[in-house]
Amino acid sequence: MPNYEISDAQWLVMEVIWSQGEATASDVIDALLPETGWSHQTVRTLLARLVQKGALQTQPVRNYYVYLPLISREEAVRDEGESFLQRLFQGNADALLVHFVREGKVNQSTIDRLQQLIDEEQSTTKHKNKTTKQRRKKHDK
Fold first, then answer.
1. How many whole angstroms separate alpha carbon 141 and alpha carbon 132?
2. I need a surface site. Which of 4, 71, 76, 119 has the fewest CB within 10 A?
């Protein structure tokens, strides 16, 4: 998956389009103006950059364009997460988790969920290893 490098401002635009499924420039302006105070030109520039990056596509309708997402929010979050992990922790997820736990950014409920995921992963890995060993034994006979 390509790295779209969506800026914070572009992310706000994408959130509007993801929430609506598709949007005109006027829709995005109306949604963001109260929160950001951005001019029409600013929003149109952000939309154009997102089209250039391949995150949005345009569909002409009469005398205006409708903007449609080419990536899902989930794909963008995954991309941003990978980028963040690479930039700040050289791709080391262990270091990331340790950092957030030590800084108190993870509450007990989240720690419990992480432990459950770890237990499930270990169980799945043990099952896979056992199955692989059984196949090898059958193959060796």
1. 15
2. 119
